[in-house]
Write a structure and sequence with these properties.
Helix content: 25-40%
Shape: globular
Structural class: alpha+beta
Largest sheet: 6 strands, antiparallel
Bound molecules: adenosine monophosphate, glycine
Number of strands: 24
Radius of gyration: 21 Å
Strand content: 25-35%
Oligomer: single chain
Protein backbone atom coordinates (compact mmCIF):
# COMPACT_ATOMS: atom_id res chain seq x y z
CA UNK A 1 0.00 0.00 0.00
CA UNK A 2 1.28 3.45 -0.86
CA UNK A 3 1.82 5.51 2.26
CA UNK A 4 1.42 9.25 2.56
CA UNK A 5 2.44 12.13 4.76
CA UNK A 6 -0.27 14.37 6.14
CA UNK A 7 -0.19 17.64 8.04
CA UNK A 8 -2.52 18.55 10.89
CA UNK A 9 -2.77 22.24 11.83
CA UNK A 10 -3.35 23.12 15.48
CA UNK A 11 -1.99 22.37 18.92
CA UNK A 12 -4.75 21.28 21.28
CA UNK A 13 -6.41 18.09 22.45
CA UNK A 14 -8.57 17.93 19.33
CA UNK A 15 -5.51 18.03 17.09
CA UNK A 16 -3.84 15.43 19.30
CA UNK A 17 -6.79 13.08 18.68
CA UNK A 18 -6.91 13.78 14.92
CA UNK A 19 -3.16 13.32 14.52
CA UNK A 20 -3.14 10.15 16.63
CA UNK A 21 -5.95 8.61 14.60
CA UNK A 22 -4.31 9.47 11.28
CA UNK A 23 -0.95 8.13 12.45
CA UNK A 24 -2.67 4.77 13.11
CA UNK A 25 -3.94 4.52 9.51
CA UNK A 26 -2.20 1.99 7.26
CA UNK A 27 -2.25 4.66 4.52
CA UNK A 28 -0.14 7.05 6.55
CA UNK A 29 3.63 7.26 6.68
CA UNK A 30 4.03 10.29 8.92
CA UNK A 31 1.67 12.77 10.52
CA UNK A 32 3.15 16.21 11.06
CA UNK A 33 1.40 18.61 13.38
CA UNK A 34 2.03 22.36 13.35
CA UNK A 35 2.66 23.64 15.92
CA UNK A 36 1.41 20.60 17.88
CA UNK A 37 2.33 19.98 21.50
CA UNK A 38 5.02 18.10 23.38
CA UNK A 39 2.64 15.24 24.26
CA UNK A 40 2.20 14.25 20.62
CA UNK A 41 5.50 12.36 20.67
CA UNK A 42 3.67 9.69 22.71
CA UNK A 43 1.63 8.74 19.63
CA UNK A 44 4.36 8.98 16.99
CA UNK A 45 3.34 12.37 15.62
CA UNK A 46 6.11 14.75 14.57
CA UNK A 47 5.59 18.35 15.62
CA UNK A 48 6.66 21.27 13.45
CA UNK A 49 7.45 24.68 14.92
CA UNK A 50 5.17 26.76 12.71
CA UNK A 51 2.23 28.68 14.13
CA UNK A 52 -1.25 27.79 12.92
CA UNK A 53 -1.82 31.21 11.33
CA UNK A 54 1.52 31.39 9.50
CA UNK A 55 0.06 30.23 6.19
CA UNK A 56 3.09 30.96 3.96
CA UNK A 57 5.38 28.81 6.12
CA UNK A 58 2.78 26.04 6.44
CA UNK A 59 2.45 25.98 2.64
CA UNK A 60 6.21 25.88 2.26
CA UNK A 61 6.42 23.00 4.73
CA UNK A 62 3.66 20.98 3.04
CA UNK A 63 5.39 21.40 -0.34
CA UNK A 64 8.75 20.27 0.97
CA UNK A 65 7.55 17.27 2.96
CA UNK A 66 5.41 15.56 0.36
CA UNK A 67 2.23 16.26 2.29
CA UNK A 68 -0.71 14.71 0.42
CA UNK A 69 -3.22 16.88 2.25
CA UNK A 70 -3.64 19.04 5.34
CA UNK A 71 -6.35 18.73 8.01
CA UNK A 72 -7.19 21.96 9.81
CA UNK A 73 -8.15 21.72 13.47
CA UNK A 74 -8.93 25.24 14.75
CA UNK A 75 -11.53 27.71 13.56
CA UNK A 76 -9.26 30.76 13.59
CA UNK A 77 -7.13 29.47 10.73
CA UNK A 78 -10.26 28.60 8.73
CA UNK A 79 -11.90 31.96 9.31
CA UNK A 80 -8.63 33.66 8.28
CA UNK A 81 -8.62 31.76 4.98
CA UNK A 82 -6.07 28.97 5.30
CA UNK A 83 -8.06 26.84 2.86
CA UNK A 84 -8.16 29.57 0.23
CA UNK A 85 -4.39 30.12 0.52
CA UNK A 86 -3.48 26.42 0.35
CA UNK A 87 -5.81 25.88 -2.59
CA UNK A 88 -4.33 28.88 -4.43
CA UNK A 89 -0.89 27.30 -3.88
CA UNK A 90 -2.12 24.07 -5.50
CA UNK A 91 -2.29 22.10 -2.22
CA UNK A 92 -5.10 19.89 -0.96
CA UNK A 93 -6.58 20.88 2.38
CA UNK A 94 -9.60 19.64 4.32
CA UNK A 95 -11.77 22.45 5.63
CA UNK A 96 -14.15 25.17 4.45
CA UNK A 97 -13.12 28.35 2.65
CA UNK A 98 -13.12 31.67 4.49
CA UNK A 99 -16.53 32.41 3.02
CA UNK A 100 -18.03 29.18 4.37
CA UNK A 101 -16.20 29.59 7.69
CA UNK A 102 -18.35 32.65 8.40
CA UNK A 103 -20.93 30.09 9.52
CA UNK A 104 -18.82 29.94 12.66
CA UNK A 105 -17.05 33.29 12.44
CA UNK A 106 -20.22 35.36 12.54
CA UNK A 107 -23.33 34.40 14.52
CA UNK A 108 -25.35 36.83 12.44
CA UNK A 109 -24.18 35.17 9.19
CA UNK A 110 -25.08 31.72 10.55
CA UNK A 111 -28.53 32.85 11.69
CA UNK A 112 -29.23 34.37 8.27
CA UNK A 113 -28.20 31.09 6.65
CA UNK A 114 -30.51 29.12 8.97
CA UNK A 115 -33.42 31.49 8.32
CA UNK A 116 -32.85 31.35 4.58
CA UNK A 117 -32.68 27.56 4.36
CA UNK A 118 -35.31 26.73 6.96
CA UNK A 119 -33.04 25.28 9.63
CA UNK A 120 -34.76 25.42 13.05
CA UNK A 121 -33.04 27.69 15.58
CA UNK A 122 -33.88 29.91 18.55
CA UNK A 123 -35.83 33.14 17.98
CA UNK A 124 -33.18 35.77 17.54
CA UNK A 125 -32.33 39.30 16.56
CA UNK A 126 -29.00 40.92 15.85
CA UNK A 127 -28.20 44.54 16.70
CA UNK A 128 -25.52 46.97 15.53
CA UNK A 129 -26.56 49.63 17.94
CA UNK A 130 -26.62 49.64 21.73
CA UNK A 131 -29.91 51.52 22.15
CA UNK A 132 -31.68 49.20 19.70
CA UNK A 133 -30.26 46.17 21.53
CA UNK A 134 -31.39 47.51 24.91
CA UNK A 135 -34.88 48.14 23.52
CA UNK A 136 -34.80 44.68 21.91
CA UNK A 137 -34.59 42.92 25.29
CA UNK A 138 -38.31 43.56 25.71
CA UNK A 139 -39.08 41.21 22.80
CA UNK A 140 -37.70 38.24 24.72
CA UNK A 141 -38.62 36.56 28.00
CA UNK A 142 -36.10 35.69 30.73
CA UNK A 143 -33.64 34.13 30.91
CA UNK A 144 -32.37 35.55 27.63
CA UNK A 145 -29.21 34.65 25.72
CA UNK A 146 -26.79 37.40 24.67
CA UNK A 147 -23.93 36.62 22.31
CA UNK A 148 -20.93 38.35 20.82
CA UNK A 149 -21.16 38.17 17.07
CA UNK A 150 -17.58 36.97 16.43
CA UNK A 151 -15.35 34.10 17.52
CA UNK A 152 -15.05 33.82 21.28
CA UNK A 153 -13.79 30.30 21.96
CA UNK A 154 -17.14 29.26 23.46
CA UNK A 155 -16.85 32.01 26.04
CA UNK A 156 -18.85 34.76 24.34
CA UNK A 157 -22.32 33.79 25.57
CA UNK A 158 -24.17 35.12 28.60
CA UNK A 159 -27.47 33.69 29.78
CA UNK A 160 -28.97 36.71 31.51
CA UNK A 161 -31.50 35.91 34.22
CA UNK A 162 -33.20 39.29 34.34
CA UNK A 163 -33.42 42.70 32.68
CA UNK A 164 -30.66 44.15 34.82
CA UNK A 165 -28.15 41.46 33.87
CA UNK A 166 -29.16 41.67 30.22
CA UNK A 167 -28.76 45.45 30.19
CA UNK A 168 -25.38 45.28 31.86
CA UNK A 169 -24.14 42.55 29.48
CA UNK A 170 -25.15 44.50 26.40
CA UNK A 171 -23.54 47.69 27.70
CA UNK A 172 -20.31 45.84 28.43
CA UNK A 173 -20.21 44.17 25.02
CA UNK A 174 -20.58 47.45 23.15
CA UNK A 175 -18.17 49.19 25.55
CA UNK A 176 -15.63 46.43 24.79
CA UNK A 177 -15.82 47.22 21.10
CA UNK A 178 -18.39 44.73 19.78
CA UNK A 179 -20.00 46.14 16.66
CA UNK A 180 -22.81 43.61 16.64
CA UNK A 181 -24.60 41.73 19.41
CA UNK A 182 -27.11 38.91 19.05
CA UNK A 183 -30.03 38.36 21.43
CA UNK A 184 -31.69 34.95 21.43
CA UNK A 185 -34.51 33.10 23.06
CA UNK A 186 -33.12 30.73 25.71
CA UNK A 187 -33.77 27.16 24.64
CA UNK A 188 -34.44 24.37 27.09
CA UNK A 189 -33.39 20.79 26.68
CA UNK A 190 -30.36 18.55 26.40
CA UNK A 191 -27.48 19.81 24.28
CA UNK A 192 -25.70 17.55 21.79
CA UNK A 193 -22.85 17.83 19.31
CA UNK A 194 -23.19 16.40 15.82
CA UNK A 195 -20.37 16.25 13.28
CA UNK A 196 -20.72 15.94 9.53
CA UNK A 197 -17.94 15.00 7.16
CA UNK A 198 -18.89 16.91 4.04
CA UNK A 199 -17.89 16.42 0.45
CA UNK A 200 -19.96 19.13 -1.16
CA UNK A 201 -23.52 17.68 -1.14
CA UNK A 202 -22.46 14.27 0.20
CA UNK A 203 -22.01 13.66 3.87
CA UNK A 204 -21.46 11.16 6.63
CA UNK A 205 -22.39 11.65 10.28
CA UNK A 206 -19.78 10.78 12.91
CA UNK A 207 -20.80 9.26 16.27
CA UNK A 208 -22.53 11.86 18.42
CA UNK A 209 -21.17 13.21 21.68
CA UNK A 210 -22.13 15.43 24.56
CA UNK A 211 -19.82 18.17 25.80
CA UNK A 212 -19.91 19.91 29.21
CA UNK A 213 -19.32 23.61 28.62
CA UNK A 214 -19.54 25.07 32.09
CA UNK A 215 -16.47 25.11 34.31
CA UNK A 216 -17.93 23.63 37.51
CA UNK A 217 -19.97 20.62 38.57
CA UNK A 218 -23.72 20.87 38.13
CA UNK A 219 -23.31 23.09 35.04
CA UNK A 220 -22.24 26.01 37.19
CA UNK A 221 -19.54 28.60 36.64
CA UNK A 222 -18.46 30.31 33.43
CA UNK A 223 -18.65 28.83 29.94
CA UNK A 224 -15.42 27.19 28.80
CA UNK A 225 -14.20 25.52 25.64
CA UNK A 226 -15.51 22.21 27.10
CA UNK A 227 -14.66 20.20 30.22
CA UNK A 228 -15.47 16.62 29.27
CA UNK A 229 -17.34 14.45 26.79
CA UNK A 230 -18.59 10.97 26.10
CA UNK A 231 -19.95 8.95 23.23
CA UNK A 232 -22.33 7.34 22.34
CA UNK A 233 -25.44 8.98 23.83
CA UNK A 234 -27.68 6.36 25.41
CA UNK A 235 -30.34 8.95 26.23
CA UNK A 236 -30.86 9.96 22.58
CA UNK A 237 -33.61 7.89 20.94
CA UNK A 238 -33.43 6.73 17.32
CA UNK A 239 -36.54 8.76 16.66
CA UNK A 240 -34.97 11.99 17.95
CA UNK A 241 -31.83 11.24 15.94
CA UNK A 242 -33.84 10.72 12.75
CA UNK A 243 -35.64 13.99 13.40
CA UNK A 244 -32.30 15.80 13.70
CA UNK A 245 -31.17 14.35 10.38
CA UNK A 246 -34.38 15.26 8.60
CA UNK A 247 -35.05 18.69 10.09
CA UNK A 248 -31.52 19.96 10.66
CA UNK A 249 -28.90 18.06 8.65
CA UNK A 250 -30.77 17.82 5.38
CA UNK A 251 -31.77 21.51 5.06
CA UNK A 252 -28.26 22.51 6.18
CA UNK A 253 -26.55 20.42 3.50
CA UNK A 254 -29.05 21.57 0.86
CA UNK A 255 -28.27 25.16 1.87
CA UNK A 256 -24.54 24.59 1.54
CA UNK A 257 -25.03 23.25 -1.97
CA UNK A 258 -27.55 25.93 -2.99
CA UNK A 259 -25.25 28.64 -1.63
CA UNK A 260 -22.29 27.30 -3.65
CA UNK A 261 -20.06 26.81 -0.63
CA UNK A 262 -18.26 23.77 -2.13
CA UNK A 263 -17.90 22.61 1.43
CA UNK A 264 -15.23 19.95 1.89
CA UNK A 265 -14.59 19.68 5.59
CA UNK A 266 -16.21 19.14 8.93
CA UNK A 267 -19.41 20.86 9.99
CA UNK A 268 -20.16 20.75 13.69
CA UNK A 269 -23.81 21.30 14.52
CA UNK A 270 -24.53 22.30 18.12
CA UNK A 271 -28.11 21.34 18.92
CA UNK A 272 -30.59 21.63 21.74
CA UNK A 273 -33.36 19.06 21.68
CA UNK A 274 -36.35 21.15 22.82
CA UNK A 275 -39.94 20.06 23.42
CA UNK A 276 -40.52 21.57 19.95
CA UNK A 277 -37.88 19.41 18.28
CA UNK A 278 -34.17 19.94 17.61
CA UNK A 279 -32.88 23.49 17.22
CA UNK A 280 -29.44 24.62 16.15
CA UNK A 281 -27.63 26.91 18.58
CA UNK A 282 -24.44 27.12 16.55
CA UNK A 283 -22.56 25.91 13.56
CA UNK A 284 -18.84 25.37 13.87
CA UNK A 285 -16.71 24.66 10.86
CA UNK A 286 -14.34 22.15 12.48
CA UNK A 287 -14.36 19.28 14.92
CA UNK A 288 -15.20 19.92 18.57
CA UNK A 289 -12.75 19.99 21.42
CA UNK A 290 -13.11 17.83 23.57
CA UNK A 291 -15.71 15.80 21.60
CA UNK A 292 -13.16 14.68 19.00
CA UNK A 293 -11.10 12.94 21.66
CA UNK A 294 -14.02 10.61 22.49
CA UNK A 295 -15.50 10.23 19.01
CA UNK A 296 -12.48 9.20 16.99
CA UNK A 297 -11.53 6.14 19.09
CA UNK A 298 -14.98 4.71 18.26
CA UNK A 299 -14.55 5.20 14.53
CA UNK A 300 -13.69 1.95 12.77
CA UNK A 301 -13.80 3.54 9.33
CA UNK A 302 -10.29 4.63 8.43
CA UNK A 303 -10.03 8.39 9.00
CA UNK A 304 -7.46 8.84 6.23
CA UNK A 305 -9.78 7.14 3.72
CA UNK A 306 -12.77 9.15 4.85
CA UNK A 307 -10.99 12.50 4.47
CA UNK A 308 -9.19 11.48 1.31
CA UNK A 309 -12.42 10.45 -0.41
CA UNK A 310 -14.21 13.58 0.79
CA UNK A 311 -11.46 15.83 -0.55
CA UNK A 312 -11.30 14.07 -3.89
CA UNK A 313 -15.08 13.90 -4.43
CA UNK A 314 -15.02 10.11 -4.35
CA UNK A 315 -17.85 8.06 -2.82
CA UNK A 316 -17.61 8.33 0.95
CA UNK A 317 -17.03 5.12 2.90
CA UNK A 318 -19.79 4.04 5.29
CA UNK A 319 -19.22 5.02 8.92
CA UNK A 320 -18.47 1.90 10.96
CA UNK A 321 -18.61 2.46 14.70
CA UNK A 322 -17.28 0.27 17.49
CA UNK A 323 -19.85 -1.11 19.95
CA UNK A 324 -17.66 0.24 22.79
CA UNK A 325 -18.00 3.58 24.58
CA UNK A 326 -15.51 6.37 25.31
CA UNK A 327 -15.49 8.79 28.18
CA UNK A 328 -13.11 11.68 28.82
CA UNK A 329 -12.54 14.31 31.48
CA UNK A 330 -10.52 17.47 30.83
CA UNK A 331 -7.94 18.54 33.40
CA UNK A 332 -7.73 22.33 33.30
CA UNK A 333 -5.40 24.83 34.87
CA UNK A 334 -6.59 26.44 38.13
CA UNK A 335 -8.26 29.75 37.27
CA UNK A 336 -9.42 28.67 33.79
CA UNK A 337 -11.16 30.19 31.90
CA UNK A 338 -10.62 33.69 33.34
CA UNK A 339 -7.07 33.62 34.71
CA UNK A 340 -5.44 30.22 34.20
CA UNK A 341 -2.24 29.49 36.09
CA UNK A 342 0.78 28.66 33.91
CA UNK A 343 3.80 26.51 34.71
CA UNK A 344 2.45 24.15 37.39
CA UNK A 345 4.27 20.81 37.61
CA UNK A 346 2.36 17.87 36.19
CA UNK A 347 5.31 15.46 36.12
CA UNK A 348 5.17 12.20 34.21
CA UNK A 349 1.73 10.74 33.61
CA UNK A 350 1.44 6.96 33.56
CA UNK A 351 -0.80 5.35 30.94
CA UNK A 352 -2.36 1.91 30.94
CA UNK A 353 -3.90 -0.20 28.19
CA UNK A 354 -7.30 1.15 29.12
CA UNK A 355 -6.62 4.76 30.04
CA UNK A 356 -5.24 7.20 27.49
CA UNK A 357 -4.06 10.78 27.79
CA UNK A 358 -4.73 13.25 24.99
CA UNK A 359 -2.44 16.20 25.63
CA UNK A 360 -3.32 19.82 24.94
CA UNK A 361 -1.74 22.85 26.66
CA UNK A 362 1.37 21.26 28.10
CA UNK A 363 5.04 22.21 27.88
CA UNK A 364 8.33 20.89 29.25
CA UNK A 365 9.28 17.30 28.50
CA UNK A 366 7.31 14.05 28.74
CA UNK A 367 9.12 13.21 31.98
CA UNK A 368 8.65 16.66 33.42
CA UNK A 369 5.44 18.07 31.98
CA UNK A 370 4.27 21.49 33.05
CA UNK A 371 0.95 23.19 32.45
CA UNK A 372 0.80 25.86 29.78
CA UNK A 373 -2.54 27.47 30.70
CA UNK A 374 -6.12 26.62 29.81
CA UNK A 375 -7.18 23.04 29.23
CA UNK A 376 -4.10 20.92 29.84
CA UNK A 377 -5.11 17.41 28.82
CA UNK A 378 -7.90 14.89 28.75
CA UNK A 379 -7.91 11.58 30.58
CA UNK A 380 -10.02 9.15 28.58
CA UNK A 381 -10.97 5.52 28.53
CA UNK A 382 -12.64 3.20 26.07
CA UNK A 383 -14.54 0.27 27.48
CA UNK A 384 -17.51 -1.99 26.85
CA UNK A 385 -19.89 0.42 28.60
CA UNK A 386 -19.92 4.13 29.38
CA UNK A 387 -20.12 3.41 33.09
CA UNK A 388 -17.02 1.17 32.95
CA UNK A 389 -15.12 3.82 30.95
CA UNK A 390 -16.25 6.52 33.38
CA UNK A 391 -15.10 4.55 36.39
CA UNK A 392 -11.66 3.99 34.90
CA UNK A 393 -11.20 7.70 34.20
CA UNK A 394 -12.30 8.87 37.64
CA UNK A 395 -10.23 6.21 39.40
CA UNK A 396 -7.19 7.39 37.44
CA UNK A 397 -7.90 11.04 38.24
CA UNK A 398 -8.41 10.31 41.94
CA UNK A 399 -5.09 8.48 42.19
CA UNK A 400 -2.94 11.34 40.87
CA UNK A 401 -1.86 14.53 42.57
CA UNK A 402 -3.07 17.40 40.37
CA UNK A 403 -1.24 20.48 41.56
CA UNK A 404 -3.09 23.73 40.71
CA UNK A 405 -5.46 21.96 38.34
CA UNK A 406 -9.15 21.14 38.43
CA UNK A 407 -11.63 18.90 36.67
CA UNK A 408 -15.36 18.23 36.78
CA UNK A 409 -16.65 15.26 38.77
CA UNK A 410 -20.00 14.88 37.05
CA UNK A 411 -19.18 14.29 33.40
CA UNK A 412 -21.82 11.93 32.02
CA UNK A 413 -24.40 12.63 34.71
CA UNK A 414 -26.95 13.42 31.99
CA UNK A 415 -26.47 9.93 30.57
CA UNK A 416 -27.30 8.51 34.00
CA UNK A 417 -23.65 7.82 34.90
CA UNK A 418 -22.59 8.47 38.45
CA UNK A 419 -20.33 7.59 41.31
CA UNK A 420 -23.15 5.74 43.09
CA UNK A 421 -22.48 2.92 40.69
CA UNK A 422 -18.76 2.76 41.48
P1 LIG B 1 -22.10 29.16 21.55
O1 LIG B 1 -20.97 30.14 21.73
O2 LIG B 1 -23.13 29.59 20.59
O3 LIG B 1 -21.53 27.82 21.36
O4 LIG B 1 -22.82 28.99 22.95
C1 LIG B 1 -22.16 28.52 24.09
C2 LIG B 1 -23.14 27.81 25.00
O5 LIG B 1 -24.18 28.68 25.41
C3 LIG B 1 -23.85 26.67 24.30
O6 LIG B 1 -23.09 25.52 24.30
C4 LIG B 1 -25.12 26.54 25.11
O7 LIG B 1 -24.89 25.78 26.27
C5 LIG B 1 -25.41 27.97 25.49
N1 LIG B 1 -26.37 28.54 24.54
C6 LIG B 1 -26.11 29.17 23.38
N2 LIG B 1 -27.22 29.57 22.76
C7 LIG B 1 -28.26 29.19 23.55
C8 LIG B 1 -29.68 29.34 23.47
N3 LIG B 1 -30.28 29.98 22.47
N4 LIG B 1 -30.41 28.80 24.47
C9 LIG B 1 -29.84 28.17 25.51
N5 LIG B 1 -28.50 28.02 25.66
C10 LIG B 1 -27.72 28.53 24.69
N1 LIG C 1 -16.63 21.59 22.46
C1 LIG C 1 -17.06 22.83 21.97
C2 LIG C 1 -16.35 23.32 20.81
O1 LIG C 1 -15.44 22.69 20.30
O2 LIG C 1 -16.71 24.37 20.33
Amino acid sequence: MEKHNVLVVGEGGREFAIAKQLQQSPHVQQVYCAPGNVGMATVGVETVAIEENDFPRLIEFAKHHDVVWTFVGPEDSLVEGIVDDFTAAGLKIFGPTARAAQLEGSKDYALNFMDHYGVPTAQHHSYRDQTAALNGIAEFGFPVVIKENGLAGGKGVVIAQDREEATQTIRELFANGQSRVVIEECLNGPEYSMFLVLSNGHYRILPMAQDHKRAADGDRGPNTGGMGAYSPLPQLSDQDYEQMVKEVVEPTVKGLVAGNYHYHGILYIGLILTADGPKVIEYNVRLGDPETQVILPLLETDLFELVDHALNDEPLPEIQVSAAATFGVVVASAGYPQHPVHGQMIGKLPTTDQVMIDYANVAGTLDQLVGNGGRLLMVLAKDSSLQAARDRVYQYLAAYDWDQCFYRHDIGAKAGLGSNKL
